[in-house]
Amino acid sequence: MSHLPPFQRFLDAQAGDVLRFLIASVGRHDADDAFQETFLSALRAYPRLRPDSDLRGWVLTIAHRKALDVHRARARRPIPIAEPEPERPPGAPGEGRAAGIEGDHWERVRALPARQRAVLTLRYAGDLSYAQIATVLGSSEDAARRAAADGLKTLRKELSHVTAPA
Amino acid sequence: MSLRPPDAAPEHAATLAARTAARAAEQGLADVAYATIDSPLGRLVTVATARGVARIAYELPNGGLDAILDQIAARLSPRIVQAPKRLDDVRRELDEYFAGRRETFDVALDWSLVAGPFGRRVLAQTARIPFGATRSYREIAEQAGSPNGFRAAGNALGANPIPIIVPCHRVLASGGGLGGYTGGLDVKRWLLRREGRSAVD
User: Fold this and answer.
1) Which residue, of B82, B115, B152, B170, has the greatest Cβ tally within 10 A?
2) Nearest-CB residue to A4 (from B12, B27, B78)
3) Given this model, what pLDDT does residue A91 score?
4) Would you identify the CATH topology of the domain B117-194?
């Protein structure tokens, strides 16, 4: 089709993916606002978009920028250390692992350097290819892969500490 | 190690999407707002711009919601959001009309989906036919300045983007026969009966 779809259809189609990406990237508390900011920005720019554009890559690029804004605002906040999201207490062995670890992963991802965080959230929560991620970040595919590998390495190291017997 | 995407409840995403669409309409970021309305004549898709109501479409005879919105996106703007609040006035007036409590409509209209100057004149004349009255295609063509243009007038009426409010159902064939209608002839009959008229079938 040679025309852009009505914005509402685009919004409905991308809402779930954008929300998942933002939850991973900024946490549930800030995801709702970032979601609205993302789609309002998208709406402003929408008529200038070419109909054959990669709509998912485009909207996740905007979401990625909104996530950066959130992280920058946090960095400027006077309290130096942690987010209000409470540290999960070490629960019963089996249960804690199944329910808790996944959430902890994204909290740890959020604490990584900006580029590693961006690549891992776009790849594993946004489900973009490394080629798409390179476009979002204005870098090369190789650089995106390297950043992902570095980020995963750090996470593995941290997790081995956590799961090691006391 | 694998990073699984975090859970995002579909209902929550839908709620956020609706909230965003409403905000876009309030802030004037959307050029077009729409809502679907249940009526005795089936589901209607109502569409408004900042100027007023631009489209009322019988959903099924027009190929469904997606087809209707695709056409609006191509002809007006793709900045379309679902914003039921923005269509509250027209919904209320239509409800009152269907319930027999209203004979004329007060909502502002946006004529931009009407094609060509003749089409505009035809629909402007049609908009002046009072509740309970009817005209022939020929009369409307004459009033629009083209006595021999009743066929073109018929086409313009068939393409009426704002039926019911611009009452093209009040235009009949010269012998009093039904002629045609955008929502199907049963709907035309229903509307005429609602206004105390009937056509020669």
Assistant:
1) B82
2) B78
3) 40
4) Arc Repressor Mutant, subunit A (1.10.10)
Does ipTM top 0.90? Answer: yes
Question: Catalytic positions of B, please?
Answer: 168
Contact between chains at B34 and A8 (C-beta distance less than 8 A): yes
Number of domains in chain A: 1
The pLDDT mean for chain B works out to 94
Q: What is the pLDDT of residues B125-135, one digit of tens each?
A: 999 999 999 99
pLDDT surpassing 60 at residue A63: yes
> Is residue A82 scored above 60 in pLDDT?
no
> Which residue numbers of B have CB closer than 8 Å to A's CBs?
1-6, 8, 10, 12-14, 16-17, 19-21, 23-24, 27, 29-30, 34, 66, 69-70, 72-74, 77-82
Most A CBs within 10 Å, among B15, B16, B45, to test the A interface: B16
Average pLDDT (A107-126) is 95
Q: For chain B, which residues make up each domain, given as ranges? A: 10-98, 117-194
Query: Does the beta-carbon distance from A40 to B16 stay under 8 Å?
Result: no
Nearest chain A Cα to B2, which residue? Answer: A124
Fold adopted by B10-98: Double Stranded RNA Binding Domain (3.30.160)
